[in-house]
Write a structure and sequence with these properties.
heterotrimer; A alpha+beta; B alpha+beta; C alpha/beta; A: alpha+beta; four-stranded mixed beta sheet; C: alpha/beta; Rossmann fold; nine-stranded mixed beta sheet; 23 strands
Chain lengths: 94, 390, 470
Amino acid sequence: MSFTKNYYFKLFIAGMNSGSFRAIENVREICDTYLNNNYDLEVIDIYQQRQLLKDMNIIAVPTLVRVKPGPEVRIIGDMLNKKEIIKILEIKEK
Amino acid sequence: MPEKENQPLLTKEHFDLKGRDYMYRALIENMSEGALVLSKQHTVVYSNKHFAALTGFDLQRIIGSNFKTLLREGDAAAFSKSISDALNHQAYCQLQLLTKNKETIPAIASISSFIVEDKTYFSIIISDISLQKKIEEGLENQVAAHSLEIAAANRRLSEINNELRSANQILDNFVHAVAHDLRAPVANLKMIEEMSEKAPDEHKIKLFQKVRENINILDTTLKGLVQIIETQDKKEINRPEIDIIKIVKEVLFNMSARIKAKNATVTIKKETGEKINHVEGYIRSVVRNMVSNALKYSMPGRPPELKITLKKEKEYFVLSFSDNGIGIDLKKHGGNIFKPFQRFSSNEKGMGIGLHISNAMVSRNNGFIKVKSEPEKGTSFRVYLKEYES
Amino acid sequence: MNERISNLQIKKVKTGIEGLDEITFGGLPFARPTLISGYAGSGKTVLAIQFVLNGIQYYNEPGVFITLEETENDLRKNMASFGYDLDEMEKSGKLAIDNIRIDQTQLHKSGKFDLTPLFLRIEEATKKVGAKRIAIDTFEQIFSEIKDRDIFRQELVRLIHWLKEKELTTVFTSEKPAITNPKAGINEFITDCVINLSHSQLENVYTRRLHILKFRGSMHGTNEYPFLISSKGISLLPITSVEIHHVSEDVLPTGVEGLDEKISKKGFYVGSNTLISGTSGVGKTSVAMSVCLAAMKRNKKALFFTFEESKSQLMRNMKSLGFELEEFEKKGLLKIVTSRPTALGIEAHLVTLYENIEDFRPDVVALDPVTDLVEVGTKKEVRGMIVRIIDYLKNNLITVIFTALISSGSNSPSVQMSSMVDNWIKLDISKKENENQPYITIVKTRGMEHARNSSLLKFTGEGLKTEESI
């Protein structure tokens, strides 16, 4: 992880299916549109990382965790509604 | 039964706790190729473990990133083209993948597209072709090496051609010289034969001597022929251990009549061991030739003095013959000495093949003959003999 | 006991919980979900986890407990107090506990999602021990977090389907009783068996009840059964069965001189129950104690429950009749238990009685007076309790003496029992003027004959005696 970016997200998905793809694409779109490369995105497949899902108490997928900036914010869902997402994440609209 | 609210129809797939993709997932995760799924915007929405291992990046970094960031810069355009092609048919693209240690891996991407819930995705199989590249390179090297070999072979062929040409030339010369050399004694013999018919008895003895002389000449000529053939012949030659000094002494003994007749002095000096693995016949020929020449080309009025020395110079046995004869103008004839059938002076009667044969014999085993000479002072022939491996 | 019946039913899994396996005729439905509903403190967590732990301890079935509420430490401590060693069970690879904490803070929703990660954790736990049983306490916690009814229901259906496939017998706990509140978190139609636990409070006394609301495909007891959370966990008290009880031909004399002669068998059958009714102070206690003494003299054990007097009071009073109770107490043949009715609820009394009986193993039990229990329960409840006692004791061939107070002016005790008991002895004061003499009348004896006339009851220094009145 680079420490220079202002935003650091972890996106938890479950396996390879259209729901996971949609979430990845949507998050990507939001980041590209509003954050201008000033972000780090990690996509974690819970099937591959069982311990992490326990440690971070992930109960639903997709879950987007905004790690930085703090405090931590979590959103569950396919992130289709971009306006809603940026509002929750407190990202300024350009 | 209590009334159920409107529920969406749940298919059997919905009940699979692991998600519908378990079998496929197992297949794709265990493949020995990298597998990716890209969205239409080229975002990696899925990558298998193999691809991550290939590039050295974490899986969670790869998924969610734009595929272009994983390629070497120059390849982005080619890739974009291939991926648009993939909308219509299977597309292939050679590209260089970037690795975590900032290296590149040559790879082939096999791309196809599919639609899920009205959205287009691309599935890509990435094959690492570094091994194939190495093999290609290896093959190219081999081809290059072979070209060199072929060139070398060609060169040898021309060399051989040259040799053949010169051999032909030699033969030609030889045939001419033999014909020429044979003619003289044969003509003499003819003449003698004619004369003998008319000659009185007291003259017949002289005539008989002449006959003998001419027969000797014929004999020597023929021997020379045989020697040449033997030299050119590639048959295996016996190389036992022989005593050079002994041979020298034997040759001198055989030629003692001529030596005496010329009032010549021959000295032998031995500065090294006389045993050598070589061809006896060759050494005998060479010695006879050298001695013969020394006797033949003596200064008129000066009794010939021949010094024979046996030395060792590095790996060579050096048998040198130094005389006080008429000498050779090396400036004039230097390049031709060992060519057959050459005459370096006007007054000799031999066949001129001796030196050529001697040289041929000696150089058969990488030996050579060096000449030093001063006209009217003398000549020194140094025969470098290389021992045959026993 | 009821195997004959349960064999015809669906396959069941024993809970190991006292009484519950009986009223469900074999336990909970195999590979199906059971819902235990009840408000906080109703005991649903204990029931759920006991189901799993008993599976490990008694039936060699490994199990998983998923808790979304308690922390693991609390759980361990609580269950240790019931005699379960959770650490040991985990170490032996039979128990897996997963404490899923739902972060209350900052969880937003946007769009469709599913609960796969949760299920993965559940699956992992079941795989770890090869579980056959699983309890999830409480599933609604998640619902309160995610709040999307459709997704919740869909995921629950998915989970249950998976559990059925894996043949895991499941217990879910839920706060709200389902049937009475259809809008509640877990819709009851997805569970095959619903049990509701309730507890009511009556002046500081708790009464807990278990009620099987639904049990698809099976017979089940339909009453509300009182239960207690004792030192061994949940126990439903032994209940009425429809079987024929054991009978004995042996007879226990009353110890009241002359009274036995009035009975054809010269005493009461062992294992029978006898009601001694009378007004206050008429001598019921003494008669009851006399029966006990007669037994003790034959080296039998007697357990005397007094709801009215203190032990010392009782012993002093009995001394005047020549009953040397200390002697028998020392010999271990007598145990006196004082129990203030208001100290416990009905069930508690019952359990106390039960525990004492199990402990002491008496041949005779006296409850004096049983009518005092009306203070803590309704008449119906007390009756119910008495029925249970009678049942239980009959099954164990223990002879029971109940004393019951009749308020002056009425003919029968406040609790209608006379029809239930085997034998009935009435004590009353003569209605003649100037006489304060108690009379003893045998009203009923089951299975034997008796004299119907009343006799005078004399209290002497050598015990009780009857005297025929003229």
